[in-house]
Structures are given as C-alpha cells and as structure tokens.
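Problem 12. The chain below contains 75 residues. Write out its predicted structure in token notation.
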Amino acid sequence: MEDSYCTTGSATGPDTAADTAAAAPGTAAPAKADGPPFAECVLCREPTEYPESYKGITLCPVCEWQEAQRSACSG
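Solution.
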C-alpha cells in the first residue's frame, strides 16, 4: 500500500504549502507590506506580512502554512 496518497506535486516540504495556498483557484496574490503597520492574523492575532489596509482574511505565515496543510488533503 502506498503512503504518498496525499502528495500535491513532486516537491515536498514547507515550500509546497506556500505553493498550494498561492495556487488556490480564484485568488490573487495579495500585496505584501513594505513596513509597519501590519494587519494582525485573524486566528492568532500575531502581525502578518500584509498592510492594515489589506481587504479580506489576513493570516500570519505560521497560520497560513497550517491552513495550506489542512486544505491540501481535504479532498
């Protein structure tokens, strides 16, 4: 029995989660903030890489990676 039933591509590791999140259909890559003030993560309230003026759900890098891991194997 093969244990690699949940692979999303040929690459593995932390970069794969970022690629999966960035490749979500119907989403555009958000603009990263150059400096403070940063928006806070909607899950853990830590600073994110996005400006406060960014519209939509903002996640810190850790929560963004965890969300990508959860959604990668949800189907």
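Discussion. The chain has two helices and two strands. Students who got a different answer should revisit the alignment rule from Section 12.3.
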